[in-house]
Design a protein that fits this description.
By secondary structure, the chain is an alpha/beta fold. It contains 18 helices and 17 strands.
Length: 513
C-alpha cells in the first residue's frame, strides 16, 4: 500500500474533527502535503480510542496489539520521519492461544510453516491441504492489500477497479459468490480449528467468520502474515508518537473543542464553528465522528443534505465491546500468554443472541490480554494486569446498560475466566476498570456505542463501507471506523491517509454539479 506524496495542498487550510487514529492519520498526511492543519477534539484528552480511560487500571478502547505496523511506518514516511525513532514494536509469537471447547489448545501462528505444524497436530490432512493452498492464499492476500484496501473509492468503485485487473478475479469472485468464511474453512480444512482462529482476527473488525463472505479470507490472512506486534508503551505509546509528529509538523490539536457547525457556501466547505475555539476558515474538513452524525449534526438542513442522507440510508450499527481491566494479586498459567482466547461451545447460538437478538450472549468469546507479559514484565511476579474483551451488541431498546446490568455482566465474565483455569481470580482482583457500550456512547459520542461503524458484520457489509468522499459536498471528507478500510488501528490510520489523498487529488475545489 503506497500513497504518493505530491505536496499539492500547500497553503490549504484543513480542519480535522476528532483526534483518534483516523483523525491524527489524516492530520499528518495533510500536513505532510503542505496543508495548515487544526485538529478539534471534543474530549479533554486527545487520542480517541487510543486514549486511556479511568484510573488505577487505565483502558484504551482498542486492543494493544498491532497486526500491520508498516501502515504507521508509511504515515511517518510521508513526513520524512522513521517510525522506529518514535515508537518500537516487539513481535508476539504465537499470535494467540485458543482454548477450545473440547479442552484442547490451538496456537495461532503468523508464520505459515508453524501454523501448518500446529494444524497437523490436530488434523494432518488439513495441514497438507493448507500447504498446497498457501501460495494462492498469499497471492490473493497481496492483491487484496494493494488493490482493495489501499483504494480510496466507494465499494463499487473498488470492485470495478478489481474487475479491470485479471489477477484479482479469484479474490473478486470470492467476495461476490455465496458462501460464508467459516463454512469455507471447515470444508477445505476439516478438523483444523482455523475457523475459530480466524474468528479472533475477524472480531477485531467487529465481524464474524460465520457471517462474512468467503472473499474476506485474503484480507484476514494477509493481516496474519504481517504478524502480531506490541508497541512500546502499548497503544499509549502510539498515541504519544502521533502527537509528537503533530508537534513537529505544527499541527495544533485543540481539546475540549465541540464542533457545532460546518458552514457551507454553494455546498462547498467554508468555515467550522463551535465552542472552545474561534470560528475557523476551512478549505478542507475531515470528519471522523461518523457519516450520519456529520450530516445530521454538523450541516444545516438543505435539499442537498437530505439527498445525501437518503443515499446513505439507515445502516444498522455493528458490534460493540465490553472491556474489563483487572489488576490481580496472583498469576495463572492459563493466562500466561500475551493473548488467550476462550472459544464458546455453541457459536451459532452465541451469534443469534449477539447479532440477531441484540442482547449480550450468555457465553461470548473472551479475548484475554496479559498486559504484564505483553509489556515485557515478569509473568511470575506478584501482580498481573489483564485486559478482558467480550463482543457485545450496540446500545438498543432491547438492552440498556445500567449499574445493575454492568455488574451482572462483569460477574458472569469473571466466572467464565475462573472456569477456564483462573481459579480464585475473582478474589484476587485488587483494582478494576470497566467500559461498556453505554460508556462508549455517552462518554465518547459513538453512535449506539458501536466500535466498528455500520453493518460490517453482515456478509457483504465490509464491501459496502463508504469511502472518504461525500459526493454531494466539496471539501468535506470522512474517515474512521465505519468508512473504508476498517476499524483496526492500522486501518483507521490508513483511512485518514486515504482521506488526505482524496483531498489532494480533488484540489482545487469546484462547486458540485
Amino acid at each position: 500500500m503506497k500513497i504518493v506524496l505530491d505536496k499539492s495542498l500547500a497553503g490549504v487550510r484543513a480542519v480535522v474533527i476528532g483526534s483518534g487514529p483516523a483523525g491524527l492519520g489524516a492530520a499528518v498526511a495533510l500536513a505532510a502535503r503542505g496543508a495548515r492543519v487544526r485538529v478539534l477534539e471534543r474530549d479533554s484528552v486527545a487520542g480517541g480510542r487510543l486514549a486511556p480511560r479511568g484510573e488505577g487500571v487505565p483502558l484504551a478502547a482498542i486492543d494493544p496489539f498491532v497486526f500491520q505496523p508498516h501502515v504507521l511506518g508509511q504515515l511517518f514516511a510521508l513526513a520524512d520521519l522513521r517510525l522506529s525513532d518514535f515508537v518500537e514494536f516487539r513481535p508476539v509469537e504465537p499470535v494467540a492461544r485458543l482454548l477450545l471447547p473440547s479442552g484442547e489448545t490451538f496456537h495461532l501462528h503468523a508464520d505459515p510453516a508453524r501454523l501448518a505444524d500446529e494444524m497437523g497436530r490436530l488434523a494432518p490432512a488439513a495441514a497438507e491441504r493448507f500447504l498446497r493452498d498457501l501460495p494462492r492464499w498469499e497471492r490473493q492476500a497481496r492483491i487484496a492489500e494493494d488493490h482493495f484496501l489501499a483504494q480510496p473509492g466507494r465499494g463499487t468503485a473498488r470492485l470495478r477497479a478489481l474487475a479491470g485487473f485479471p489477477p484479482a478475479w479469484p479474490f473478486l469472485a470470492g467476495t461476490l459468490r455465496p458462501g460464508r468464511l467459516a463454512t469455507r474453512l471447515r470444508h477445505r480444512l476439516p478438523g483444523a480449528p482455523l475457523a475459530e482462529a480466524f474468528e479472533v482476527l475477524a472480531a477485531r473488525h467487529g465481524a464474524s467468520t460465520r457471517r462474512l463472505a468467503a472473499g474476506f479470507l485474503p484480507i484476514l490472512f494477509g493481516e496474519l502474515l504481517h504478524g502480531c506486534w506490541v508497541p512500546t508503551g502499548g497503544v499509549a505509546g502510539v498515541r504519544e508518537a502521533l502527537l509528537r509528529v503533530c508537534e513537529l509538523l505544527d499541527i495544533r490539536v485543540v481539546t475540549n473543542a465541540s464542533v457545532e457547525r460546518i458552514q457551507l457556501e454553494n455546498d462547498v466547505v467554508r468555515h467550522v464553528a463551535g465552542q472552545g475555539f474561534k470560528t475557523l476558515r476551512a478549505d478542507l474538513v475531515v470528519s471522523t465522528i461518523g457519516l450520519r452524525p456529520t450530516l445530521e449534526e454538523l450541516l444545516t438542513p438543505s435539499e442537498t443534505r437530505a439527498r445525501a442522507l437518503r443515499r446513505l440510508g439507515r445502516p444498522r450499527p455493528a458490534r460493540s465491546t465490553f472491556l474489563m481491566g483487572l489488576r490481580c494479586s496472583a498469576s495463572w498459567e492459563t493466562f500466561d500468554a500475551p493473548m488467550t482466547v476462550i472459544v464458546p461451545p455453541d457459536t451459532e447460538e452465541m451469534l443469534r443472541q449477539l447479532d440477531d437478538w441484540s442482547v449480550p450472549a450468555a457465553r461470548p468469546p473472551l479475548i484475554v490480554t496479559n498486559l504484564t507479559v505483553a509489556g515485557g514484565g515478569d509473568p511470575a511476579g506478584p501482580e498481573t494486569l489483564l485486559r478482558v474483551e467480550a463482543p457485545m451488541p450496540p446500545v438498543s431498546p432491547r438492552f440498556r446498560w445500567s449499574e445493575q446490568t454492568t455488574r451482572q455482566e462483569r460477574d458472569r465474565l469473571v466466572r467464565r475466566l475462573e472456569e477456564a483455569g483462573g481459579t480464585g481470580l475473582g478474589g484476587a482482583i485488587t483494582a478494576e476498570q470497566i467500559v461498556t457500550p453505554g460508556d462508549l456512547a455517552e462518554r465518547m459520542g459513538w453512535p449506539a456505542g458501536s466500535l466498528h461503524g455500520t453493518t460490517c458484520h453482515r456478509r457483504r457489509g465490509w464491501l459496502q463501507r463508504p469511502g472518504a468522499v461525500i459526493p454531494e459536498f466539496r471539501g468535506l471528507l470522512v474517515a474512521g471506523a465505519e468508512t473504508h478500510p476498517g476499524s483496526t488501528l492500522p486501518m483507521l490510520v490508513l483511512g485518514g491517509m486515504l482521506a488526505a489523498e482524496v483531498g489532494a487529488e480533488a484540489w482545487p475545489l469546484t462547486p458540485p454539479g
